[in-house]
Amino acid sequence: MRTNETLGDIIDEGDHLHATCSNCGKNYYLDLEMLVKKLERGRSFVWLYGNLAAKLSCKDCKTKTIEVRFHPKLNGG
């Protein structure tokens, strides 16, 4: 059964967090293993969704206008 209550659950299920810069349009998947090192596997998904974007900046234009979205793994792969 899928729970996705924590960062560890997201990794275990093979899901992703995707970031998009509202300023320049750059899109990228977040490195979940790096997030675990900084935030711990038990960090709640609710906290991630509410706070993570404010801590990120765009790799290209360096602004902090980031939107974070959850992307579940597609069935079968």
Tell me about this structure.
The structure is a single chain. The chain is α+β, with helices and mostly antiparallel strands and 77 residues long. It has a single domain, classed as SIR2/SIRT2 'Small Domain'. Helix content is 32%, strand content 19%. The chain has three helices and three strands. The relative contact order is 0.29.
Derived structural class? alpha+beta
* Rg calculated over all Cα atoms: 13 Å
Question: What is the helix tally?
Answer: 3
CATH architecture: 2-Layer Sandwich
Strand order in space, largest sheet: 2-1-3
Distance between the termini: 17 Å
Number of domains: 1
Largest sheet: 3 strands, antiparallel
In the CATH hierarchy, what is the class? Alpha Beta
Shape: globular
User: Could you name the CATH topology?
Assistant: SIR2/SIRT2 'Small Domain'
The count of DSSP E runs of length 2 or more, i.e. the number of strands, is: 3
Which stretches of 5+ consecutive residues score pLDDT under 50? none
Question: What's the SSE pattern?
Answer: HEEHHE
Mean pLDDT over the residues: 89
Strand content: 15-25%
Helix content: 25-40%
Can you summarize this structure?
Helices cover 32% and strands 19% of the residues. The chain has a three-stranded antiparallel β-sheet. The chain has helices at residues 7-12, 32-39, 45-55; strands at residues 16-21, 27-29, 66-71.
Q: Features of this protein?
A:
77 residues; 3 strands; three-stranded antiparallel β-sheet; SIR2/SIRT2 'Small Domain'; alpha+beta; 32% helix
